[in-house]
Every structure is written in structure tokens, then in C-alpha cells.
Amino acid sequence: MSETRATPETARVAAIQMNSLGEVDPNLARADDLLREAARRGARLAVLPENFAIMGAHETDKLNVAEPDGVAGEDTPIQTFLSQAAARHGLWIAAGTIPLVSPEPDRVYPALCVYDDRGTRVARYDKIHLFDVGLPDSREAYRESATFMPGSNEPMVIDTPFGRLGLSICYDLRFPELYRRLADQGAEIIVAPSAFTHTTGTAHWHILTRARAIENLATMIAPNQAGHHASGRRTYGHSLICDPWGQVQSEARSDANEVVIADIDRSRNARLREGFPCLSHRRLV
């Protein structure tokens, strides 16, 4: 994609791919470098992948770094970092996900928090759908509910300078009813920070992200984890930005840390929804 500057009708956005490690500090340092690059390349919004701050050797590792909600200070290094990085780089940051303390000591909330370019937190969405699955023809299995507490079933859409922003996380991609609710609330851009496994990503990553864009005539920003992690888990990468017509504008092609950039055009999105009004043609609601 050309690196020309975005026009007043467009906004440059970034999907940040990471190969997150098993400790918080080096992951925050990596994230800061990638956010700096996104800002240097003109992005106004940067989206970090699911579990960007820790991909531990054990699923319980996240419990040891869980933070109380919304408190800045030495007890909340991840949230403090995000607030300071957003202000320092002049970026809106959608950071998915942060392990936040829940009422149950053996589970945390997987929280996607959004910070504006002054470092103020403006939204929090806790992952609704938890990845409790066994993969077909494989011994590979996951049970997120063992260490994650699901959020409420309320979709989250917020106003930003570059359009109405809908929030989702990873496994949510398999539940189109959530995305329809986001579209009903006016979402023009939807973020889906993820840690798709290599197995499920190979089969479904592009299909699901493009389908959610097409169905809802919305831009999808989907950063993913990539490569091998401390637990032995392998994630798929291919972080991407997809336009409302389902075309992939930009995509990561390696298992490395990478910044994926695209310009989104709100006026084109509006024209598309007006000329191709499938959202208003629904009969089963």
C-alpha cells in the first residue's frame, strides 16, 4: 500500500501483529516500538492483538499479572503503559486484551480497553464468547473459561474522530449476531484483536474476517498473534485490515512483529451503505 498521507476524508489505521512472550515487560517494550512505528507512518488508531501483554507458558500465568480495573500506578503497569503510550504517540489505541481482576480469584476478565490520543480510557469491552473447544481430528483443545470470566452480553460501540467503532475479540468472530448488533448501533469500523491458533486460522481466519466486513458493510481491523509461544501454542498471524466490500487492504505476511497499515474512507463507506442498502433490507430481525 502507498504510504501517502491520509486526506481529511480518510483516516489511517494500524493492525499490530505480535509474537508475545511469557513476561509482561518485554511485551510492553515491543508494543511501544510498534506503536511508535504506527504513529510515524501516520496512523490515528492502532489496534493491539489479544493477549498482547502476556502469552504465558501456562494458562494460569495471566492470573499472576491481573490488574485492578482503571487504576493508574505501579500496581497496573499494563494500563499505565497504554495510557502513557497513547498520549506519547498521539494515538488512539484499542488494546486487546488486558487481564483484569474478576470476583473469582482463579479467573480474570479478558478486557479490550480503548484509549484516546490524550491517554484517557474511553471504553472497556470484556470478551463475551470464550474459546472452549476441541479441534476436529486433533488432540488440540482449549478451555478459556477455566481462567477467563466472560463479559456481559452487551455490545460496545463508541464515537471516535474517525467513525463509530465497534469492539470484539477473537472467538467473537464466529458469532455474526454480535456484529449485526454492532452494525445496528452504527459501527463503521470493527476491531477484532485475536490470538487465532494456526489450525483454526488456516481454515477460517480470512473467511470470518471478510464475512463480518461484508455482512455489515464495515471496515474490519484484525490484528493477530503470530508464531510460536512459551506454551508451545502456535498462532496464525496474517493480521489484516479489510474494507466494507470484503477486500483485504493490507495483511501481514510473516510470523514476526509487524505493523499493518491502511487508509479507511468514511465517505466511501457511507456511499456503499446508501447504494447497497442490505442492512435495511433485512426481514428477519
Overview of the molecule:
The chain is built from 5 helices and 16 strands. The protein has 285 residues and is of the alpha/beta class. The longest helix is centred in the C-terminal third of the chain and has 19 residues. 47% of the residues are buried.
CATH structural fold name = Nitrilase/N-carbamoyl-D-aminoacid amidohydrolase
Oligomer: single chain
What order do the strands of the largest sheet run in, or round the barrel if closed?
Answer: 5-4-3-2-1-16
CATH class equals Alpha Beta
In the residues, how many domains can be counted? Answer: 1
From the coordinates shown, what is the CATH architecture? 4-Layer Sandwich
Query: Strand-residue fraction?
Result: 25-35%
What is the count of helical runs?
5
Mean pLDDT, to the nearest integer, reads 94
Largest sheet: 6 strands, mixed
The end-to-end distance, rounded to whole angstroms, is: 38 Å
The gyration radius over C-alpha positions equals 18 Å
Q: Into which percent range does the helicity of residues fall? A: 10-25%
Give me the secondary-structure category.
Answer: alpha/beta
Query: How many runs of DSSP E, i.e. beta strands?
Result: 16
Helix-strand string: EHEHEEEEEEEHEHEEEEEEH
- CATH superfamily assignment? Carbon-nitrogen hydrolase
Sequence stretches where pLDDT stays below 50 over 5 or more residues: none
Anisotropy-based shape:
globular
